[in-house]
Specification:
This protein has a single domain, classed as TIM Barrel (Alpha-Beta Barrel), CATH 3.20.20. About 45% of the residues lie in helices and about 15% in strands.
Length: about 270
């Protein structure tokens, strides 16, 4: 059983849901990335997702794209990211999941990349540009090292294919709430609750919802039907302010924002 399996088994037994914040590694720098991850887990987030910057991200909106660009312009390196995450993983109780392009995995070599994740205490990976139908080789490597390979289902995924994707995913299933790109939204699709409810009936895997979630009312609406909620752009936007504002104040503001989302989860 992987670390992520153990986490969601524990949360389910306690009747709790996971708030999963997303942060970009290295924006404005890795020192602040580490500080934010510690703040988020101190505030009660049981799992965190970290984006590894890439020049051609898939489905990321302007806020996350801009954060990737800034990090790459600062010549951030994969080795430095993994070393930072390894240090953080040793200091927090929450598993870390990477969002990474398959081009990066392929360049390293799947076995070597997964070995490096394990070496640095990283529990899972999301590879948004690797179709589930082409993921068997990487999935086998991940399974051999107890690293979760999380797959994505979107609102436009045919239901038969959604079931097949669920069968290939490990750790949890990432349900994309909207057809489009990441970003804060005031409204979420009316059919979202029904779609996620259907998906949860098809799999024993935890289902976590991402894209567009940014307000306590979203949490209140979706927490009853999901196992976890993923919040990215709203946090990444606040992290960017650390480049020009007081870092401790920015860190406090990020923590307070996350606390406002955790409150409706009970």
């Amino acid at each position: 059983m992987s670390t992520i399996d153990e986490l969601f088994t524990k949360l389910r037994s306690e009747g709790r849901k996971a708030l999963m914040p997303f942060v970009t590694a290295g924006d404005p720098d890795l020192e602040f990335t580490a500080a934010v991850l510690k703040e988020l887990t101190d505030r009660g987030c049981p799992i965190c997702e970290v984006g590894i910057p890439y020049s051609d991200p898939i489905a990321d909106g302007p806020v996350i794209q801009a954060s990737y660009t800034r990090a790459l312009e600062n010549n951030i390196r994969l080795t430095d990211i993994l070393n930072t995450l390894g240090d953080v993983a040793g200091q927090i109780a929450a598993p870390l999941v990477t969002m990474v392009s398959y081009a990066i995995v392929y360049r390293q070599g799947p076995q070597q990349f997964v070995d490096r994740l394990v070496e640095h205490g990283i529990a899972g990976m999301i590879v948004p540009d690797l179709p589930a139908e082409e993921s068997s080789s990487l999935a086998a490597v991940c399974q051999s090292r107890d690293v979760s390979l999380i797959q994505l289902v979107t609102p436009t995924t045919p239901r038969e294919r959604a079931v097949r994707i669920a069968e290939t995913s490990t750790g949890f299933l990432y349900y994309v709430s909207v057809a489009g790109i990441t970003g804060e939204r005031t409204r979420l699709p009316a059919e979202l609750v029904e779609n996620v409810g259907w998906l949860r009936e098809q799999t024993s895997l935890p289902v976590c919802i991402g894209f567009g979630i940014s307000q306590p009312k979203h949490v209140q609406q979706l927490a009853p039907v999901a196992d976890g909620l993923i919040v990215g752009s709203a946090i990444v936007r606040r992290m960017a302010e650390a480049a020009s504002k007081d870092r401790e104040k920015t860190l406090q503001q990020i923590g307070d924002y996350v606390a406002s989302l955790l409150a409706p989860m009970g």
